[in-house]
Amino acid sequence: MAIRFGKEGIGGIGFAGLVLIHPYFWGKDPIGNEEKESEFREGAFEFWKLACPTTTGPDDPLVNPAADPDLGRLGCSKVVVAVAEKDFLSDRGRYYCEAVRKSGWKGEIELLEAKDEQHVFHLMDGGCENAVAMRSKICSFING
């Protein structure tokens, strides 16, 4: 959505920032821990096909925005990506941050990593220390 907004815009509407919390990104080539988890990789892509039956494959920019040649056209000035250290998808969040930095995009990107946590931990225990810290950082990002 942020790339599309950067390319097409909508008259009279601004898009200041993007918050991605434990994003479900994917790709054809395994990265990080994915190399050790071939069965999980297969299931993760099958799940994506269920969510998006018209997908063009694992490098579809909808699930692998790092593969989008227009990544550098994000239509906002700041991005924050939150990952959980023990989340199987955390390497993809980190990879996305690297890809955005290399894309030529002129905004600011920040990676928030919650140590010793799993995917969507903040939904399971919203009062835990890491959830409170993440929420605080995201609120600062939005209000800053």
From TrEMBL:
**Protein name, please?**
Alpha/beta hydrolase fold-3 domain-containing protein
- The signal peptide, as residue positions, is none
Gene Ontology molecular function, alphabetical = hydrolase activity
**Species per Swiss-Prot/TrEMBL record:** Linum tenue
Concerning its family, UniProt says: Belongs to the 'GDXG' lipolytic enzyme family.
Listed Pfam families: Abhydrolase_3
Question: What SUPFAM superfamilies does the entry give?
Answer: alpha/beta-Hydrolases
Residues covered by the Alpha/beta hydrolase fold-3 domain: 2-122
